[in-house]
Amino acid sequence: MFWNKRFVRVAVGVLLLVAAVLALLPGLTGYTSLDGTINARFAEISAPIEGTVLQTPPKTGTHLPENAVLLTIQNERVNRAVETSLAAELETTRNRVQALETLERGEEPHYLKPGESTY
Questions:
Q1: Which of 10, 59, 74, 95 is the most buried (most CB within 10 A)?
Q2: Origin, by domain of life (predicted)?
């Protein structure tokens, strides 16, 4: 019988050993990383006030919903005039965006009176 010859049994054993080594070799010598390449624009965020960050910002690459809070800064000695100024600037920017969206749709923009808000 062909399979009972010593040479054939040794050859099959060596082939199985080589196949096992080839199957395990990439896992033993290779390096697999979970890091990927981000092909997107980054935005650098800077705070107009000093203070302590209360929560850890999300990791790079984390998908966030619209209007998500990235972090909160606590400063007991902050000048409230800066906060009021930034809130007014935010409201003005929102009004401008709404007017531009209205113009883009081809409608007549509705100009808000001071103190009137759409949000």
A1: 95
A2: Bacteria
Q: Is 109:115 a contact under the CB 8 Å cutoff?
A: no
Per the domain annotation, does 37 fall within a domain?
A: no
pLDDT digits (tens, 9 = 90+) for 72-116: 888 877 677 777 888 899 999 998 898 888 888 887 766 666 666
Global confidence as pTM: 0.33
Domain count, the chain: 2
H/E segment holding residue 53: strand 52-53
